[in-house]
């Protein structure tokens, strides 16, 4: 009996337990709220991310907002994401709180920012009336506003998962000090978090979008003041890794950062520079820190089905850091294993292509010769996305082993009159202009032009290549170059091919990088260089022996003759000269100083030099470069610089000296240090018979003629010793 009674009690206790747990379990079935929005007609999406901002315009909030307006316009953004800490110091008091307008509506006034904003809450927002900040009533005041705790945004090519991270942080609960956190609808913490994580995991698993991006206020990894958020690393990160999340974007630390996960593809991106910054704290963090900036700014994200590009900007709208990643685009692409990449040539249309329009095939068997490997296809597509015009593209990851092959286009180029989805004039404008400028060369029966771009690291080589082509083909980085490999971009139109070869910087850690030079040499094998662009910065004020060494390395590699086919390109042309110098004087001084070092490094005699002087041209690659009414980037004196640069290129070519062909001989050619090696045995023989023998004879003679002190007799053997 007692046994039965005990069993019933146990059962009722169990039932009671279930009943009490039920209400807490209920939200389990409630999914995270979802919002939908389409990508652009061309399948792309662009947006800005800002965090930690609401300070009524102060602490550079207005400056950041103004630059967001400009970049937003440039990128034609679709929406804005806020990573939280929207209203300082203590969120909103109520829905009537004027801070909402003073910190949001009246600050982000630019036309391009009049888009939907998607916001999460930060810890400071939790210190006010959270329900007010989440209230739909705010949308009546400013329709852009949308702030929820956790929600999902399906944007066709990407799913964004917004996660309320403040409740994760235990110290806000256990040790709030003088702050009050509004935990209404959140407490108890454990239940809230477990339900949220379960919903998030389910939603991530169900997501089929090519990109999965998670947004929260607190950082996973941070090298700044707050550092890593331990609770997120232990509770949230495993779910993100298990579900193949691409990016985790946050604010909280008032800085800009890019950190790559060591053991997954996740990139941790901090955009928390919306207003007050300059904390002056840097602490090393785990994983790979790629970029850290302690000041104000924001981030942009551009996405297509296959490519993601991020950029960070400062309070002046300057790009501080850029990074991109590609995905395979076509299920058919999987057919071709990655190792096939050494045997392919690809071509296709440039322009805003639909990935389905890219032809795939096997280079070895496909008679159309237009085979593209998956990786190439992905890169190809990301190139074509960035390109505002059409042309023919050839990409080769292993150019040394694979001669360039062109196939015939799979279909007529819209550029030549067949209607495309975009007006041809828009697509073709830049390339047509370039082509027209290069038309002069065609008249001289030049059908291929190969431009080699070299110089020290970080001087703007890649940026110049991109500017000339009008698209982002070479990766630009504010710090050191990503790799040592040169890249060649080819563009063809109407029988004329333009090749531009971007190379890695030649200086590393204060020395000329021999390895880079070797790689460049081998890359250039069997290529003909028509023009060398030697790039440096206009705003570099000091020249040193390193400059000379770089020039010498180039001379040793290609021969002195390369300088007859060269021009000096000075980037950062939009500068204000220091100490009230006038611009022309500054330019003249800078070119003169640089030229002196070129002359020294190339061992060109002065009069030789004057006969064929090396032209110097100015370039300004900055997105902030002034433009004329035709949209062309101009120099401070109003000259459109690309046409000017191309004009000078044509004159260098037209001046008659032969282009430089890089053959095996040039590559293996005499190392200057080996020169004269042939004479070494002769010189040794000469020294032995003439010098050494002669001296020995003379010494012996002297010894014979001199009275010998005792000590010398002891050491006598010395004179008989062979030298
Ligand atoms: N304002 C301004 N910034 C420039 C200009 N050219 C390049 N930059 C910036 O300078 C930095 C380095 O530019 P890159 O084009 O990557 O230089 P690079 O010579 O290719 O560098 P490595 O490949 O690393 O040797 C980037 O942050 C560019 O945005 C320019 O003309 N004006
Ligand atoms: C505003 O930005 C400039 C440039 O980064 C910086 O020098 C200045 O300190 C900033 N002001 C504040 C209040 O952070
Ligand atoms: C990640 O790699 C860096 C070196 O690239 C190393 O210093 C760091 O400890 C690693 N972090 C983790 C979490 O493995
Ligand atoms: C370069 O050209 C030489 C002679 O034409 C040829 O033998 C060699 O295979 C070529 N090398 C490459 C990598 O194309
Ligand atoms: C270019 O080639 C054509 C035909 O091959 C010839 O008639 C013409 O004279 C050439 N022009 C120059 C400048 O060499
Ligand atoms: C080309 O040669 C002409 C004279 O023959 C000279 O005036 C001009 O400066 C040269 N241009 C270049 C770029 O070397
Ligand atoms: Mg570069």
TrEMBL record:
One Gene Ontology molecular-function label = protein-transporting ATPase activity
The Swiss-Prot or TrEMBL record lists the needed cofactor(s) as: Fe cation
**Which GO terms fall under biological process for this protein?**
intracellular protein transport
> Which SUPFAM superfamilies does this chain map to?
Metallo-dependent phosphatases (SSF56300), P-loop containing nucleoside triphosphate hydrolases (SSF52540)
Note the superkingdom of the native organism: Eukaryota
Chief location bin = plastid
One GO location term (cellular component): extracellular region
Q: Which NCBIfam families match?
A: 3a0901s02IAP34
The signal peptide stretch is 1-30
Entry-linked Gene3D superfamilies: 3.60.21.10, P-loop containing nucleotide triphosphate hydrolases (3.40.50.300)
Name of the featured protein? acid phosphatase
Q: Where in the cell is it found?
A: Plastid, Chloroplast outer membrane; Secreted
Residue ranges of domain AIG1-type G in the record: 446-670
Reactions accelerated catalytically: a phosphate monoester + H2O = an alcohol + phosphate
Q: Which family does it belong to?
A: Belongs to the metallophosphoesterase superfamily. Purple acid phosphatase family.
According to the record, the segments passing through the membrane are none
| InterPro entries given in the database record | Acid_PPase, Calcineurin-like_PHP, G_AIG1, Metallo-depent_PP-like, Metallophosphoesterase_PAP, P-loop_NTPase, Toc34
Q: What is the lineage of its organism?
A: Eukaryota, Viridiplantae, Streptophyta, Embryophyta, Tracheophyta
